Every structure is written in C-alpha cells, then in structure tokens.
UniProtKB/TrEMBL annotation:
The lineage of its organism: Bacteria, Pseudomonadati, Pseudomonadota, Gammaproteobacteria, Alteromonadales. It is found in: Membrane. One of its GO terms (molecular function) is metal ion transmembrane transporter activity. It is a multi-pass membrane protein. GO terms for cellular component: membrane. Keywords: Membrane, Transmembrane, Transmembrane helix. It comes from Shewanella hanedai. Belongs to the GDT1 family. Pfam families: GDT1. Its main location: membrane. This is GDT1 family protein. The chain crosses the membrane at residues 40-59, 71-88, 100-116, 136-157, 169-187.
Amino acid sequence: MEALLASTFTVSIAEIGDKTQLLALILTARFSHLSGAKTAIILGIFLSTLANHFAAAWLGQWAISFLSPELARYLVAGAFFVIALWVLIPDKMDEEQNNVYKMGPFLATFILFFIAEMGDKTQIATVVLAAKYDALAMVVMGTTLGMMIANVPVVILGHFSAEKLPMTLIHRGCAVLFALLGVFTLLF
C-alpha cells in the first residue's frame, strides 16, 4: 500500500506544470469541436501512461535485481536526489507533428503522451519507485493514478491554465518531496 500511495502522490505532484499536462491542454483545445473528444483524450492518457509506466517499472525492477541491496539503496536514493534537482527546471513543450492530429483525439493522445513521457521526470520516477518498492503492480497503478489526477481536470475543464498556479512553489515543493524520498531511502 505504501508503494501505491507514494507513487500516486509523487507523480500527481510532479506532473503539475509538466509538458504532458500542457499537452493535455493543447489536445483538449485542438479537439474541442469534436463530440466525445474529452473522453477519447482521457482514455488515450490512461492507456498510454499505463503502457509507458509498466515498461518503466518493469525496467526498474529488472535493473535493480542485478545490484546488491546496499548499492541499490544508494543508487535509488541518489536518483531521487537527481530528480529533486531536475524538477526545479520547468518543462517546455516540444514541437508536435501536425500529422499525428489527423489520427483523431484518442490515437493522437496515445502517441503524443507515450512519446512525451519517454525520459520524462515522471517516467524516471516510475523506474526509481519500482526499484525502491519492488511492487510493480502497485507502482504502475500509483503512477498511472497520479498522472490521471493531474491531467483529467485539465481535460475536463479545458480552460485550465498552468500559468494561474504558483509553479515555482509547486516545483520547489515537489523537489523537497523527491529529496525526502531520497533521505528515507537512505535511512530505511
């Protein structure tokens, strides 16, 4: 249960202001004229995140199996500290390919979210959380739930804007959270 809660909380906070949250806003605006687009976008986010984070969590558990428990603990703690610093660097949207939008809201969302998550903070956090907790299903459920908690309101509200939130404070709080995870990993 600790793996589920830590994964959900960590990713939902880390996702605020992340490029995938901005992507959710762009996709919602782009397909706002289509009936059922919000449902298709939410489903695309869910399935894309589930696939991406399952692969990331599996990789984390697989990689950690080759290390001694002591070395693994230090590497996981170090990774949390690195992510804490990384969170302080705000994301910017990359250029999307307009051809993907022609595929409709579900496929466009699925593809763009999967690509946007590659090497993203939340994907790396998923790798590290899976390595720390050795609970693949709970970590994947938690990180996917965290992504949904952060992104579904953006899709539903549509007019939501990350610029209205105290982003500096949110990024600093998230950095503290990852640093605390690093400290707890070292201590426990």
